[in-house]
Each structure stands twice: as C-alpha cells, then as structure tokens.
C-alpha cells in the first residue's frame, strides 16, 4: 500500500514510513545506577505489568516486545541477560557497573492506531539504548577549555580537597619550565589519578579527565600521562609544554571521537544523579555536583562552538530527564522533597538544556526497589523508615536517613557558601543489597516511577 501512495505522500499525510527508531542515551556518574536502570527498563518493557504510567503499555498499544541484534556491530552489547540474572537469582547481587560504551536494541511491535491504521498496519518501534560512563561525559567541558584554563580550574578544586594533599605536595617540588622528563611527568600523573579516584570515592563529581578514572585500553599511554600545572608560558621542550601537548591530544584523540561517534547520535537522554549520596557527603559535594552537571549539560546547547555545532547538525536531543536515583532509600513521604532538591540543584543545567529546545524534567526514581516502608515511633513522633537487607553483612535493618528540608535552598545555600557540614542536620546513607524476588508472570522488576520516567522519555513516540 505504501508503494501505491508513494513515500512522499505518506509522509505528508503523517503516515509513518518504515520503522521508528528512538536512540536513548543513559548516563550518570559513578554509583548512580546506570546498569540497574537499563536492566529494569528492559525487563519492564518486556513484561509490562508494573508500567501503568506508560500509556502505551496501560492501554495495550504495545503488542509485544523482543530483543534483537543491535545496529552498531562495533559497539559491545549490553549484557542484559547477565545483569537480569544477577538481580533475580536466589542470592541476588548488584551487577558490575558501566566501564565502557555498550548498546542494546529492544523492539516494540505496536498495534495500528488512528484512522490510517488500516493503511499502515502494525508499527515497529526500535528502542536503541546506549549506555556510557558518566565519567566520560564529564570530559565534555574540556572541548571548550585550553590546557591553561583546565589546569587553573583543576588546581583550584584540588586545593579545597584533603584527598589532593599528596598530589599537591609533589607538584610543589616541580618547576613546569624545567626540561621534560618522562619519569617526572608519569609520577605526577599517577599521583593526580590517585587523587581523582579518592575524590570520587569521597563523593565529589567533577573529576576530570574522565578517562583517568576509567582508562580502559588507554591505561599507561602518553595521552593519559599528564597533569594540571600552574599557568605559565612554558618554553619548548619543557615539562609544561609536553603536558599541554598531551592534554591537547587527549581532547582531540579521545574526547572528540567519543562525542562524534556516540553522544551526537542520541535523541533522548536520561541523566541519573545520586543526589542522596552527594547530600550525605556534605555541602561541598553537593556544590561540586551542581557545577559538574551545569558544565556537562552545556552539550545540549548546540552552536556554542563550531565543533559541537558540527556534531549535532540538524539533530538535537529532544528530551532530557534528570532522575535522582535510590528513592527507595527514603519513605515515600520524602520523595517530593528529593525531587524538589534535584530540580533546584540542576536548575542551571536544566536551563542550559532548555535553551537548546530540549524538553526537560526531573523526578526521583528507583529502578529496582530494594526496601519496604514502615512507620516507627521515636521519641513521641512517627518516623517513616525503610527496611532492607544490608549489603555489608546481609542482616535486615530499618533506616531513617534524616528529614530532607521542605525548602531546597536550606541545603543549596550552605553548599554554595562552601560550608564544611550541614548546619542543623546530618544525612545518612545505607547500602542495601537487592532483595530476593518472587515475580508474577507478566511483571518486570519492582521499581519506583520507572513507568513515569519511560512515559516522559519515549511515550510520545509510542
């Protein structure tokens, strides 16, 4: 029938020609839960009993869903089956986190819809999920920074972090204008990488270059053997000149190809953010997260420079969801507060994205629910707690992380001021293990608001 009408006429009439492809990027900084999010999303699209807020699932428009080979043969496949087994085994465990780019194609066969359904017949929507480490996304800001500008910022952050003491001590003994010595630069680079690893473990987000955290097959290469040095006019053949050359090579040979080959092809994006982890780490970690996210999401404003404009061309990310993960670590009465804090924390980042025409939203989710809620009496008041299996030791425990404020600025103002700790509260965090599951036929993994997230991200294309 399409041949009778002609593809051009069908398109003019709004009749889809060929299959629909949605490329969904999934990223977030370390421990935000990217692997679990993708596994749960796929599980709940294959078995849609827990997806009432995804309209196409609730009204039966999705006839069936199935996995099939991905379109990019050179990109590793996301190991869905292995990760699903980890979460649903008799003794469930958290799967290994994202360490490289991977991809998965989930195809949805849709019922005909509208008056032209008899003409078009069944539709097939391919959801191509692209998983990539958030640590690499941090490097986006380097595309617009010279070595001198990056060094100034990196050293400014390091001087405010106890984790950088060893690196800064070694740096103080070095003259950037001294003749280049491979051993000296390698030692300084290793100390810088060690500091970045410690800073990330302490809850900081802005730890560039990202490949210093996840080097992959570049480990030990000259392109990862540099460090920030005090600004100056380094003479040719000096330590500083070689560090600058290697930084430039990192941007040109590592950062640009990644964004060209992967990032620029995405049309829907979810950014997973461990807001609770940052709050637990303290005001400085929260401020660091705010700055990092604002810097990262400049990517969604095409045209800022010639390179980013050439990446996007006429294509741009249409929707971006900022999702605060681990909502199951809070009683549901605090979820609205977590969402409000996330919106305020990411205000600058969301404004940058909206400037490019992308629709944005923020919500709190748990891709896999690991706890149950309880109300307990404590000192005459009822506290909403969550109970789950502790990752360390395996015992059951009830947990109350603290009462998040109604007004987000009570947190964010302290963060912007560079305070050492919260003024009137301490916020705890607990590491829960995945709970043993007994899934009914037709049900995916248990979650909180995953269906709402899916509706925002892809509902309009279904």
UniProtKB/TrEMBL annotation:
GO terms for molecular function: hydrolase activity. Keywords: Hydrolase. It holds the Pfam family DUF463. This is Conserved protein with nucleoside triphosphate hydrolase domain protein. It comes from Ketogulonicigenium robustum.
């Amino acid at each position: 029938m399409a041949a009778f009408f002609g593809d051009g006429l069908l398109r003019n009439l709004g009749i889809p020609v060929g299959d629909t492809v949605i490329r969904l990027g999934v990223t977030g900084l370390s421990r935000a839960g990217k692997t679990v999010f993708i596994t749960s999303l796929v599980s709940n699209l294959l078995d849609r009993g827990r997806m009432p807020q995804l309209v196409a699932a609730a009204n039966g428009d999705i006839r069936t869903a199935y996995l099939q080979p991905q379109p990019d043969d050179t990109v590793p496949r996301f190991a869905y089956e292995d990760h699903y087994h980890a979460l649903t085994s008799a003794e469930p465990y958290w799967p290994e986190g994202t360490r490289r780019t991977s991809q998965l194609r989930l195809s949805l066969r849709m019922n005909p819809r509208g008056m032209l359904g008899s003409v078009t017949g069944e539709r097939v929507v391919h959801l191509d999920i692209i998983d990539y480490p958030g640590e690499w996304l941090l490097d986006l800001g380097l595309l617009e920074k010279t070595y001198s500008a990056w060094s100034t910022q990196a050293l400014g952050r390091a001087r405010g972090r106890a984790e950088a003491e060893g690196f800064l001590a070694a740096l103080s003994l070095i003259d950037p204008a001294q003749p280049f010595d491979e051993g000296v630069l390698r030692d300084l680079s290793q100390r810088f990488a060690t500091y970045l690893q410690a800073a990330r473990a302490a809850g900081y987000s802005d730890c560039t270059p990202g490949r210093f955290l996840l080097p992959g097959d570049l480990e030990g290469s000259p392109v990862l053997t540099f460090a920030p040095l005090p600004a100056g006019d380094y003479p040719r053949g000096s330590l500083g000149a070689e560090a600058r050359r290697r930084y430039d090579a990192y941007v040109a040979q590592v950062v640009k190809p990644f964004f060209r080959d992967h990032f620029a092809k995405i049309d829907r994006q979810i950014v997973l953010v461990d807001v609770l982890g940052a709050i637990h780490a303290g005001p400085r970690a929260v401020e660091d997260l705010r700055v990092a996210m604002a810097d990262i999401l400049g990517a969604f404003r095409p045209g800022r420079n010639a390179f980013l404009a050439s990446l996007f061309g006429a294509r741009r990310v249409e929707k971006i969801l900022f999702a605060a993960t681990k909502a199951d670590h809070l009683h549901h009465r605090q979820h609205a507060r977590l969402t409000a804090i996330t919106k305020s924390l990411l205000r600058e980042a969301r404004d940058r994205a909206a400037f490019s025409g992308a629709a944005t939203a923020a919500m709190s989710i748990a891709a896999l629910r690991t706890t149950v809620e309880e109300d307990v009496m404590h000192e005459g008041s009822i506290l909403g707690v969550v109970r789950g299996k502790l990752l360390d030791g395996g015992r059951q425990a009830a947990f109350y992380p603290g009462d998040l404020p109604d007004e987000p600025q009570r947190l964010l103002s302290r963060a912007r001021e560079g305070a050492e700790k919260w003024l009137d509260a301490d916020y705890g965090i607990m590491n829960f293990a995945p709970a043993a599951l007994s899934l009914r036929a037709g049900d995916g993994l248990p979650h909180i608001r995953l269906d709402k997230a899916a509706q925002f991200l892809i509902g309009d294309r279904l």
